[in-house]
Amino acid sequence: MAAQEIKVPDIGDFDSVEVIEVLVSEGDTVEEEQALITLESDKATLEVPTTIAGKLTELKVAEGDTVSEGDVIAMVEADEEDGSASDDDSDDDDAGESEQADDASDSEDDEAESDDADDEPEDDDSEDDDAEDEDAGGETTEVKVPDIGDFDSVEVIEVLVSEGDEVEAEQALITLESDKATLEVPSESAGKITELKVKEGDTVSEGDVIAMLESAGGKKTGGGKKDKSANQNKSGDTDRARKSDQTSDKKADKKADKSDEKQPKKESRKTESDSTDDSSKLDDVDEQRFGKAHASPSVRKYAREIGADLGRVEGSGRKGRITEEDVQSYVKKALSQVQGGGASAAAPAGAGGVPAQPDIDFSQFGEVEIVELARIRKISAKAVHKNWLLIPHVTQFDNADITEMEAFRKANKEKAAKDGVKLTPLAFMLKAAAAALREFPDLNSSLTADGAALVHKKYCNIAVAVDTPGGLLMPVLKDVDQKGIYQLARELDDISGRARDGKLKGDEMKGACFSISSLGGVGGTAFTPIVNSPEVGILGVSKHSWQPVWNGSEFEPRLILPLSFSYDHRVIDGAKAARITGFLSEKLSDLRTLLL
Ligand code: CAO
């Protein structure tokens, strides 16, 4: 059987379009409607499908070539069973009965569609004529969908402008996406958008008015006129395209579907836009980012079907194009993250784009030993991962001059020890933190689950990070504001000791309003502690050191304590955070202020 030419169909108002991807190879068996190549202009990406099923015997184009309507891109030897059909395709007059029926339904469909078009847009057209006439003296014109090739009822996936926007000539106003193409509809001239006639989720066809444009330069050359000539051209082009294009059952099915949809055209538009509003469907998909992703229409369609956010997928194709395999491996990774448990399982919805931990066989590089994580470490790993992902963190650094505080502590340390109290700087910090929680009520709060309100707490419980052999624990000291420094030091010693010995009770780690993590006994100059949700702040304390401080006339040695205050930026602003650390610094620098 002789191979048949597969040509570039009517691709609308474009020519010399670049072949950016060849999706098949010579010798491949192809299905009818299977995309063979992807074309990309500066405004559109579209796929050229084969019109017949069979064996691809020759490819006539390569990536980087440019093609126009009618160019032969490949030779396909039709399958035996498809032979008659494809013969029919190549010669409409020979069309078999069933295809005639298809054609008939096509033409009925077309008629019905043009009726539809007549119902609404014809009025618009006459208005348009008026508008054009007025254009000679007036300024507002209709911006219409231009010749978009062999497509109609194409979905508006993005509206790129708003009413009142000033636009440049050629600026894209909306993005359309069919199962074969995505393309932008530009404004033909500069001006102001006075009215938008479409919204995301609507479907449009050639000639539909998408916006009203108040021309910037007075006279408008008339998108309408150009559209009209495009329309006239198109009727010929479209017929030709139909003949050389597919009259497959698939298409007939699609047409049938369309005619079903078509009846209540406005209603179906509404439904589509309603479904766009369905948050469960597109909850995690950033539509703007999705729209900008570099991917072919079929990959876009595929991503939409499976709910993958293309904007998060890394493209491995030429110039970073996203392939179907890229989408698959993105989804696979996201799923393995959720199903695999471990720290990632705690990731909240919407954090699905976090790459999964790769499973690496390190033994290929040298000897290794697998050590199971302790139970506490596993639990705290989940918690810190969740908090890290959920909370927008900022850390404010500051210093406190604790020269006097340390002198006071040291002077009382021995006496305290006789009373069985280990007096460390942390007890003073607990007291200063309690004062800050009282002074800044938002610091002693939690966001409600819907993020719409703050729960202000009237009690003052502070958790302290304790380094234990099994991992990090956060026992809670209750009612810190009501206790003296000795008592706090005693309780701290007791609770941290029991934490290390694994003797804490469950409720001793609950109900904290705020946390302190002190690495002062260990070392370091600063760090960024992670807030423990639902708390909104945590104070990190590093090792104090003697530093020269200018007192106005000379440098003086002062004992400086570094503070690292991490906070939830949804609740606390930067300025307030700086005030909080300033407050803490002041309290620690002069303990007498704690009495005020
Ligand atoms: N700068 C310098 N020295 C400090 C200090 C500071 N900021 N804070 C404490 N020290 C000193 C103490 O004074 C003590 O020395 P002396 O005995 O001479 O007085 C010594 O360091 C050891 O103190 P400590 O660690 O026993 O007691 P503490 O009250 O300071 O801390 C506890 C108790 C439970 C917080 C601590 O043992 C601990 O586990 N710290 C680790 C916390 C942690 O891992 N945080 C990171 C979590 S991830 O965010």
Number of helices: 15
Class from helix and strand fractions: alpha+beta
Instruction: Report how far apart the termini are.
Output: 99 Å
- The oligomerization state is single chain
What ions, cofactors and ligands are bound?
oxidized coenzyme A
Low-pLDDT residue intervals, each spanning 5 or more residues: 82-137, 218-283, 341-351
Proportion in helices:
25-40%
**Gyration radius, rounded:** 35 Å
Overall pLDDT confidence:
77
Outline, from the CA principal axes? Answer: elongated
Strand order of the largest sheet: 7-2-4-5-13-12-10-15
Largest sheet properties: 8 strands, antiparallel
By DSSP, the count of extended strands is: 27
Describe the structure.
It is built from 15 helices and 27 strands. By secondary structure, it is α+β, with helices and mostly antiparallel strands. Helix 2 crosses helix 4 and helix 13 packs across helix 14. Residues 82-137, 218-283 and 341-351 have low confidence and may be disordered. It is 36% helix and 23% strand. The strands form 6 sheets. An 8-stranded antiparallel β-sheet has the order 7-2-4-5-13-12-10-15. Strands 17, 20, 23, 24, 25, 26 and 27 form a 7-stranded mixed β-sheet that branches. Strands 1-8-6-3 form a 4-stranded antiparallel β-sheet, with no helix packed on it. Residues 424-426, 464-467, 472, 492, 496, 517-521, 529, 541, 543-544, 561 line the site of oxidized coenzyme A (CAO).
